[in-house]
TrEMBL record:
<dbReference type="InterPro" id="IPR015422">
    <property type="entry name" value="PyrdxlP-dep_Trfase_small"/>
</dbReference>
<keyword id="KW-0808">Transferase</keyword>
<feature type="domain" description="Aminotransferase class V">
    <location>
        <begin position="62"/>
        <end position="294"/>
    </location>
</feature>
<dbReference type="GO" id="GO:0008483">
    <property type="term" value="F:transaminase activity"/>
</dbReference>
<dbReference type="InterPro" id="IPR015421">
    <property type="entry name" value="PyrdxlP-dep_Trfase_major"/>
</dbReference>
<dbReference type="InterPro" id="IPR000192">
    <property type="entry name" value="Aminotrans_V_dom"/>
</dbReference>
<keyword id="KW-0032">Aminotransferase</keyword>
<protein>
    <submittedName>
        <fullName>Aminotransferase class V</fullName>
    </submittedName>
</protein>
<dbReference type="Pfam" id="PF00266">
    <property type="entry name" value="Aminotran_5"/>
</dbReference>
<keyword id="KW-0663">Pyridoxal phosphate</keyword>
<dbReference type="InterPro" id="IPR015424">
    <property type="entry name" value="PyrdxlP-dep_Trfase"/>
</dbReference>
Amino acid sequence: MTDLRPRPDLWSLDPDVLHLNHGSFGAVPRRTQELLATLRAETEANPMRWFRSVAERLAVSRLELARFLRTDPAGFALVPNASAGVTAALATIPIRPGSRIVLTNHTYGAVLFAAERFARAFQAEVVVVDVPLEADDDAVVAAIGAELDERTAALVVDQISSATAMVFPIRRLVEVCDGIPVIVDGAHAPALLDAPAQDGADFWTGNFHKWPAAPRATAGLVVAEKWRSTTLPLIVSWSENDERLPERFDMVGTADYAPWIAAPESLRVLDELDWPVRRAQLSTLIDEAAQVVAKALGTDLPDVVHPAATMRLVELPFADDRSPSAGEAFKARVSRELKAEITLTAFDQRVFVRLSAHAYNSARDYELLAERLPTLL
Ligand SMILES: Cc1ncc(COP(=O)(O)O)c(C=O)c1O
């Protein structure tokens, strides 16, 4: 299997554990952790001085994060996570009684809950479009396009889905929406796609605490010009009446702003890893890894047409119990008995291990998983 000089030394991950699920909660490099600790020490040395300095530091950080996404900084706001980004977008668009919020069967569960909350509040309806796992771009656009009409309040669509690690054709979906507001859930997109917020959507949100390995609770919300004056942070605070979108989202009450200020340090780590080259190598690695694990389990790899650069699904030959609690119990056993951290996803009555690869992973990690996992089945 491909090996690519893994760099676990840049992280503080427990070397006795196989870390195969970067996709869920990321992992923060040592350097960023150290900066975070320094910033927190500064806070505790003089909280008053720290909070006086926050606005200026956030402005610097925002510019670096927006540059990384290759997006206009005037439309880029900081939010704690993609869930907050989607919620803020749903709170902005007009939702009329009888209208429909369209999403897909790949939509992240919490995002579905958000759409349901807004639909309930405005007597609207949530429509879930079935998009097969093996759909190509034409099939994705046709399936979603068929559900759009004058009743559609918004399309909420993943850029890279969580359960299926599949890349959706956002630019084409924006075109087919033809003026219907599009909210893109790009939770996994930063660092996996080069310019994820440039497809013309009305709202895009994505996490820096996943693939860019920033401290947790660091995410971005990119808002198209027409919505910038009406998009509000979920917490009402002193910047409520600021006319500028990014500044309006900066100070949302007393909070821990250190992660947002430290986040660009992780982008520098990616830079030093020569990230675009590394990401291509990780794609090869995770392709091979998925085959090795599938062979060991005696299952097939689903034919995802555009898989995420660094995530792959391997089907589990699971028994009858496909409930979330059985999945949680299985992951806990894998952690305890195999010393491996994996995640499971479910789609269309099938259960998958969703494997991740980041710069700290090596081919050996997946070979060990392939040796150990069949012992639990
Ligand atoms: C597609 C997708 N959307 C939204 C989220 C929610 O992200 P967060 O928990 O950072 O809000 C996730 C998290 O994994 C995700 O994968």
